[in-house]
Amino acid sequence: MSLRSALRAQTADCHVAVDTLFGSFNLSRRQDYKAFLRAHARVVPSVEHALEQAGIARLLPDWPERRRAHLLAADIRALDDRLPPLLPQPALHCDAAVWGAAYVLEGSKLGGALLAKAIPDHLPSSYLSPQGPKGAMRLFMDRLDGSNVDDPAAAITAARDVFDLFLKAGQLTLEAAPMEAVPTEAVQ
User: Fold this and answer.
1) I want to staple 56 with a disulfide (CB 3.0 to 4.6 A). Which of 2, 10, 51, 166 is the partner?
2) Which Gene3D superfamilies does the record cross-reference, listed alphabetically (predicted)?
3) Which CATH superfamily is domain 3-187 in?
């Protein structure tokens, strides 16, 4: 089984939980969108920094083009909002863990591209808009599959840890400023 397949299978429950939680944000409403961005801003800079400290640029030479924390911060500032406190960085002690954490961040770009369609044109959306070199996701998946990590369990653990950070950030954000209920027909 490829590392990609193992990550997909072993984190499917996490992916569903994150999608469900963040699906409660009505991104067409300015306040909900700001809260959504704040939740992501608790996690993305921490994970990117952890990846950089663990040597992601050695594994993905185009890493600088893949970073999104600066886009997230710019969108938050454009909404006249402040960056929230960061959640702790995940521990990435080996290449397998780096691949697992990167898998979650890179995968979130696909979801972001879909979510960007819900953002009204008058709101900033550089964080959710597709960016990076053309074919970046395919290149990432090819490198992931060719990584030959000797500890897929470490990759899975790291991916689950990053998903858990997103869940925690979403929950903290919702507790701080509960969102209005999204009409049932809007989430179907």
Assistant:
1) 51
2) Heme oxygenase-like
3) Heme oxygenase-like (1.20.910.10)
